[in-house]
Amino acid sequence: MPESITVSVNGRPVVVASAATVAVAMVLAGAACRVSASGELRGPLCGMGICFECRAVINGTQHCRSCQVLCSAGMEIRTDE
Amino acid sequence: MLVWKFAPMNSVVNKQFDVLVIGGGPAGMAAATCAAESGCRVGIVDDNPNLGGQIWRRETASKASEASKWAERVLAAGVEVVAGTRVFHQPEPGVLHAEGPKGLCELRYGNLVLATGAREGFLPFPGWTLPNVLGAGGLQALVKCGLPISGKRIVVAGSGPLLIAVAAYLRQHGAEIVRICEQASWTSLARFGAALLGHSNKMKQGFDLRKALSGIPFLSSSWPVSAEGEGVLQAVNIRQASKIENISCDYLACGFHMLPNTELATLLGCQIQNDCVQVDDLQQTSISGVYCAGEPTGIGGVELSLVEGQVAGFASIGRIQCANELFSVRTRLRKFAAVLNRTFSLRAELKSLAGPKTIVCRCEDVTFDRLQRHNSWRAAKLQTRCGMGPCQGRVCGPATQFLFDWRLDSVRPPLFPTRFGNLAAAASNTEPVQMIVTGEQE
User: Fold this and answer.
1) Hey, which residues does B28 pair with through a beta bridge?
2) Which residues in A lie closer than 8 A to residue B363 (C-beta atoms)?
3) Using the beta-carbon criterion (under 8 Å), do B142 and A40 form an inter-chain contact?
4) Domains and CATH numbers, chain B
5) Which one of A32, B24, B128, B432 is CB 3.0 to 4.6 Å from B51, fit for a cystine?
6) Please, where are the H alpha helices in B186-326?
7) Which CATH architecture has domain A4-78?
8) Cis peptide bond N-terminal to B398, omega within 30
9) pLDDT digit string (tens) for A32-68?
10) Cβ B132–A43 below 8 Å, yes or no?
11) pLDDT at position B198
12) Closest approach of chain A CAs to the CA of B292, in angstroms?
């Protein structure tokens, strides 16, 4: 298995460790995961699939909890939809 | 003729087990192993991609660790691991519906072991919703999952033994731990220290952690009063001894001890007392054939979880004698757990951390002042949407319980947000592969 892979966060390439979760890729990209109901930027809180703060669009599927999804090469992650 | 295909959403996976274990952490792995080593058909269902739960996240592959030993036993015993799958409903006793990577998963079981673990407790304070303010276990989980942390300045705050373990872990991975702030007082920490004396394992862990954290300021009776930053965390204000100190940092890792995950047990109708699942000597809940082990029965740590898991596993297949043999060690560990939970119970001052405009429900952005007008969790839910977002009150619910003494009384299916296709498949329990519409195409 390669040591690192490249995924895309909002169209920009991000290099992550091969077993990293999507939440890690978003934190590394400096991208907030979502905008809250009142317009605040939010990032991951619980890291274990409970809080849903880290949800994002992964390969076109909305509302994925990014902390529970492993990155794969070429994966497209969007936080701006 | 027009053909609309709905195939990918609605494939149904059916599985049947003598003993089904929900949760693949220490308690679940122990229960599954003990049940399966007698030759029963046993399955573990877990939301995470790998076995290990939160405490052993990413550790089941590291050689000669306790985590890897249990993982090897699980697989050697022939346990089927259904990963990335979470239970959202019990349509009838003996059947659970879960959402997995391939869609709906229908799980049939003879006996059930609930090993759903615990989550961190969170308390609202101004700025706690800023990116880079995470749970202590939350930040550790991200680092375990590949987040580089070297050179980052981190304040670890909140309550519980997890803070120390997380601080040591983060430091080991190159972080600069600026402060550890524990809300409990020195007096109660000293009592906890005394309780460690009877447990050589835990005492050794304690010494090792102390060594790993040498030189880092550890403050008792201390907690974060606010976090600051423009769109991202930049600094945190820490209270200690009536003084407020402003500390710049990259991350605030803040969790207030642990909370048992009792939602599934509640949904099944198991008796809950003091926020924990009630069990008898054999770890059986108030429902015959439904067992519960580990943190949902009371926060007690990994050793107790392993023992309770083994008891539940043996009991679930009728090997009562094997279960009996573990009672004395369980009693000893439960006594320690009682001291642990007394030590890290939250002080009343923390109820005044949130200001009127502090968000309490992060999913629906409901502020403290809007909740103050209500006198129950239900009324607040109906009128403010507090607890009605995707986390379904898992974060704000316990916080309002602490802040307003509300009783959380509304667990209902689906237990987690679930895709419509899977709900539809669960409702019809058929497989709508395609719909054919006759007519002319343009």
Assistant:
1) none
2) 37, 52
3) no
4) 11-119+259-342 (3.50.50.60), 122-256 (3.50.50.60), 348-404 (no CATH)
5) B24
6) 186-196, 200-212, 263-268, 302-316, 320-324
7) Roll (3.10)
8) no
9) 899 999 999 999 999 999 999 999 999 999 999 999 9
10) yes
11) 82
12) 20
Q: Taking CB atoms and an 8 Å limit, are B134 and A43 in contact across chains?
A: yes
Per the CB < 8 A criterion, the answer to whether B320 and B282 are in contact is yes
Q: Is the Cβ pair B362, A42 closer than 8 Å?
A: yes
All residue ranges of chain B with pLDDT < 70 are 1-10, 429-442
ipTM above 0.85, yes or no: yes
Give yes or no for a contact between B149 and B174, defined as CB atoms under 8 angstroms apart: yes
B336 close to B198: Cβ distance less than 8 angstroms: yes
User: Where residue A81 falls among pLDDT bands split at 50, 70, 90?
Assistant: low
Residue A1's pLDDT band (cuts 50, 70, 90): low
pLDDT value, residue B340: 93
Give the pLDDT confidence score for residue B436 in this predicted structure: 47
Structure tokens at B147: 């987040």
At B238, list the tokens. 């820490």
B130 contacts: CB under 8 Å, gap ≥ 6: B227, B228, B229, B231, B232, B233
Query: Mind telling me how many Å the CA of A24 is from chain B's nearest CA?
Result: 5
**B391: nearest CB among A17, A23, A51:** A51
State the pLDDT at residue B10: 55
